[in-house]
Structures
1.
Amino acid sequence: MSQRILVVDDDDALREMVGLVLSGAGYEPAFAADGLSAITAFSDSNPDLVLLDIMLPGQSGIEVCEQIRSVSGVPIIMLTAKGETEDVVRGLEAGADDYVVKPHNGAELLARIKARLRPLSEEGGSIQIGILSLDPRSFEVKRGDTKISLTPLEFKLLHTLATKPQQVFSREMLLEQVWGYQYKADTRLVNVHVQRLRSKVEIDPENPKIVMTVRGHGYRVGTETA
Amino acid sequence: MKRLRKSLTAKAVLATLGFSLVALITLGGFLSFSLANSFYQNRLEQVLSETERAIGSVQNTVAAAALTDETALQNLINSVVPSLQITGASANRQVALLRSPGQAQLELFQSPISPDLDLASIPEALREQVRANPDVLSYTPITLKRGDVSFPGVTVGAPITIPLAGSFELYLVFDLSPEQEALALVQNALLIGGVFLIFIIGGVSYLVTRRVVRPVEQAAAAAELLAEGQLDERLAERGSDVIAQLARSFNKMAGNLQQQIQKLDSLSRMQRRFVSDVSHELRTPLTTIKLAGEVLFGNRERLEPALSRSAELMQAQIERFELLLADLLEISRYDAGAVQAELELRDLNAVVGAAIASIEPLALSMDTPIEIDLPAQPVEAEVDAKRIERLLVNLLSNAVEHGEGKPIRVEVSQNQQAVAISVTDSGVGMTKQQLERIFDRFWRADPARQRSVGGTGLGLAIAREDAILHRGWLQVWSKPKRGSSFRLTLPKRAEVVIASSPLPLPPRSVEP
């Protein structure tokens, strides 16, 4: 069964064209033309991934992103007409996993989609970080007996860090291993998602014990068991 | 002191005081001199007539007495001569009857002399003059001493013949100290008056200047504030004199300026809005065109030859169009002042390395070697690495394009304040006229030349904006057939103003 992708864009021609590109690559596209219908389309089509334009009539892409995030961890890739800082950061903070700047080419778009739909290579059993346990087979994270719900991207980020607890991961390394970027990309992707991850797994996000910052280098998982 | 020199009021008051002082001193000196002169002349006339009377009375008394014996004569002289003496506070006159030298008679005769008369008051020169001119009164100004105090005086003398006794000279020594005192009083009054006058002139000139200068100073301060961007600054308009005229003109100017700036401001805002709108409006259809073009291009083998070639051409031109649009939007953002550098401390060696890595495929395809001269230690500076890398890629691709396959040299260096990167080719180079236009938009050194690298014509214009954004320099040296060298100099810290570049231009590798 092919994977379903919801395309939310107010431009009819672009929506149709993206649909053609996706069909050509073997995906099954679904469409929504504005923010309000996007939510309905999302629950109707139950997609595996959402391509979301930021500038939408009615309800902005940022709001749509927040609403989808509140019910689902489905990968969301923003389409933005401008690589302007504010929009990108707001979108990422609202829960988008990645973004593509228009005008993009088909290969670029498909590569981003593929990276987000690639299943985790879940070898090995569950991993323990302090009081947190990760189960790669069920994508479950538990603090003691409490289940913590992470998006696949957040899980992958935490899992990547946890597999090598001794190693400090630079932002560039994380972009390559978690997001699948082969070359330099926007390191804000990492910064924003580490913040989101901390807000979920840390007891005190201001004073992280699980995802630690190594100043000037990057991140590693906390080794203390406290 | 500096403030004093800057203050217009102080300058005006000081100048007025200076001129007034000179005028007053001249006037006072003249007054004092002519007063002294006229005092002296008056007194002298008086003195001479007094002397004449005195001599006359002595002569008459002696003649009328018709004396025959010496004792009587001596007695008479002893009573007459001292009676000429006057002692008092208002006038002081001493007298001396001196016997002319060279006579044999009456050795015993005593010449009467005022008791406190200093004979030095009757100089020998005067005595000779008296003997030489027996018909007139001779006089000379002298200096008298009373204790330690000296004061002016005048000695008048005349010859007098005394029967039985022979030739004598009668001298009257007049004390001029009352006149001296009177003169001193007047001079003092003049001095005090002068000092008062100076103060009054100073005060008046201060007040007058203040009245004129204050509005000017206010205008200057307001202009300063206006220049700093406080466009609401205005002057008070009072009255109808030239000062009020100044205020009105100033306010009018400020008003116009404010209007113009607000107009420009709103234009600039509109421009930014426009750029942002164009950005969105153009990018969406361009994305569709691009995706569609790719689909056609990807399936060109399945098309007829003409259609297939069309797909190829379209694909290439879409890419060119996209680059052009990106550059246009970038330069518009600079024009609208909407660009902000995201500065962070970076090792320029790494940025240069990245730029070279991304140009390497092109250099290889053009068979152009790139020689690199990087310092061993890190070259750190606060830069927007993305922009600097783009700038360097631009310089490198120009060098490859115009380098005719000869080696391209990249140098990096630093000093205390600045870092510099130079990109030098040994290719076609440019003439002076071409150099002048090198940073112009859409300008190409040689329009007829076949372009191997698809530049947009905006690359160097953007590169220069990027350099300016960093408060740095982008400079170029070029000679036809010798090659070109671009040198980028950037401050290490954003707040530093660079004074010199660590690298020479033209570079050392170029023979002068």
Note: Chain A touches chain B through 18 residues (CB under 8 Å).
2.
Amino acid sequence: MADWRPSCSLTALKKRAALLATIRQFFSARNVLEVETPLLCRAGVTDPNLNPFTTVLRQPGSSEGEQLYLQTSPEFAMKRLLAAGSGSIYQICKAFRNEESGRHHNPEFTLLEWYRVGFDLAELIDEIDALLAEICRDHLILAASERFSYRELFREHVGVDPLSASFEELSERSRVRDLPEAEALCGRDRSLWLDLLFSHLVQPHLGRGRITFVYDFPAFLPSLARKKPDDPLVVERVEIFLEGLELGNGFHELADAVEQEERFDRDLVIREENGLPLPAKDERLLAALRSGLPDCSGIALGLDRLLMIRMRAESIGDVLAFPTAQA
Amino acid sequence: MATFSTNEFKGGLKVMLDGDPCSIIENEFVKPGKGQAFNRVKLRNLKTGRVIERTFKSGETLEGADVVDTEMQYLYNDGEQWHFMVPESFEQYAADSDVVGDAKKWLKEQDVCIVTLYNNAPISVTPPNFVELTIVETDPGVRGDTSGGGGKPATLDTGAVVRVPLFVQTGEVIKVDTRTGEYVSRVK
């Protein structure tokens, strides 16, 4: 086997170590507690767009086993800690997503996820801004960050309103913008239309030379964010972009157990319609929400991608010791 | 022909798209943070030569294309068809003017080139990267005369016209890069 060597350089290993130290220093100064939660989970994810790795747990001496999942994110475990009174917490950990491989995707990747009790999304964005400034300082020259709503960016770069445009208008726009295949791909699935048009026409313009925060996402795009009180068409969700790459997703967290369970149920219906596996709902998370999740906002950032941008790397393998293909 | 799924799309794979044989140049996996995955694929249409971009849903499939690049020797042309032969088997193929395209400028009889076959019929001809051709006509070129930008046109024995340095004369053999159409060097 000729490829036993790491796919990233020694420099990249050192930069990763420095990045982790910077992050820990940042949160230590702000009194945010570092936690570790399991990578092995009993509950799967209901999100129809995620495909978790599964494994089998056997008790000593037993030949039978139970199916466990590798986490796609530490969110549910961290919310259980929050409901138990942990206060603001952060975690740097691996997450696993099957069927996700490419220049910016490795099936195993590193997330920085943190939750701030009592922060609204605007305050969290300020903190994300400060953390990224710390991380990028001395590595990248960035102009001041900017904040835009999803709606205004979509209008500007695609030319129609994402919430009210008809399917005919979306089709027309896609033809004009050289995406004739969009109509057959998306049909009457508004979520898919928005994802396709945003990723192809809007995203390449975002985060060029500065961090771009996109807030106020359409409510019908699936997520676990709470609806904006004065505008039910949008949710309190933010995405962070740098050099055209998505770094992470942040939310003013949904604390309503009933609504959360409804979202799980809707997910399962979609899974069933598409012949996808039907995992059990995470009952422990739902119990934690019923007990009471403190008002909080949370965010997950992809650290590998952050490193890629800092090092001007072409592919995620340039920042990983061993991508899954060579693990 | 086999079908290929988006996760099998690699540079060089030959597939059918909209009824034309295409070669995959690049395959980019695109996944919004919370949403479905796409593959943004760059392909070259082997019939028209144009590069196109197309988005697929991850997991979509395309039919493989029966495209083979074969080394052949150029025999002759009768004005309408250019004739080629596979050296080992003596099999002959005929290609019309459109299919031969730019290669016409560089091919001399007996030259070996790549003929791309689609369903066993030629769809394009690629000349070797470098050819050696004789200059049949060019001005003498006065030494020190740089008013023309440092070069002069020369007509080659295939009929092609390339810019050559002033010191190169009629009757000389020169090496040309067929990909750029530029003079490379004189050949002794």
Note: Chain A has a mean pLDDT of 93.
